Amino acid sequence: MRVVVVLLAVLCVCDGVQFGPLCAGNPNNRRRISDSWGQGRYGAPRGSRTHKGLDIVCEDGSVVYAPFDVTLGGRVIVYTDPNKAAINNGINLNGGGLKFKLFYVQPDRVSGTVRKGERIGVMLPMQQVYPGITSHVHVQMSDRSDPTPYFN
């Protein structure tokens, strides 16, 4: 009986969490829908695999913000391909009961805490690697679950 009560309490904390604006110029976290490179929704096909994140539109060079109070958990290396070095950066974040990653962001720092709405870093030049794509921040839960419910 205690285990059930504890699990319900954890679910209630996470269910109420919503991402605040991630990127300057996109106050409503508009999602990447579809372009010549594919779709930005969780579960979209990617050849023999599926997309394990949600893409939030963000222009190259735009400021990226903390969606809520977060602890910075270190740098993320996105690719092993040297041809994608221009966008091969991101950051691990922990906050609101969630652990997640933001890809294609040059973080200002990789440890410490940041308050909701404060600058985390800058969107990297996605157009250099994927010309014509809708530039975006990729949001991926650390457990690879669907982040969509945390966005309005």
What does this structure look like?
This protein is mainly β and 152 residues long. 12% of the residues lie in helices and 34% in strands. The protein is built from two helices and 13 strands; from the N terminus they run αββββββββββββαβ. The strands form four sheets. Strands 5-13-9-8-7-11 form a six-stranded antiparallel β-sheet, with no helix packed on it. A three-stranded antiparallel β-sheet has the order 6-12-10, with no helix packed on it. Strands 1-2 form a two-stranded antiparallel sheet. The longest helix is centred in the N-terminal third of the chain and has 14 residues, at 2-15.
SSE map:
Layout: H1 2-15, E1 34-35, E2 38-39, E3 45-46, E4 49-50, E5 54-57, E6 63-65, E7 70-76, E8 90-95, E9 98-103, E10 105-107, E11 111-114, E12 119-123, H2 126-129, E13 136-141
Antiparallel strand pairs: 1-2, 3-4, 5-13, 6-12, 7-8, 7-11, 8-9, 9-13, 10-12
List keywords for this structure.
six-stranded antiparallel β-sheet, mainly beta, three-stranded antiparallel β-sheet, single chain, 152 residues
Calculate Rg over CA atoms: 16 Å
Task: Give the class from helix and strand content and strand pairing.
Answer: mainly beta
Amount of helix? 10-25%
Catalogue the unreliable spans. 4-14
Distance between the termini: 33 Å
Please state how the strands of the largest beta sheet are arranged side by side.
5-13-9-8-7-11
The coarse overall form would be globular
| Main beta sheet | 6 strands, antiparallel
Strand content: 25-35%
Number of helices: 2
Output the helix-strand order: HEEEEEEEEEEEEHE
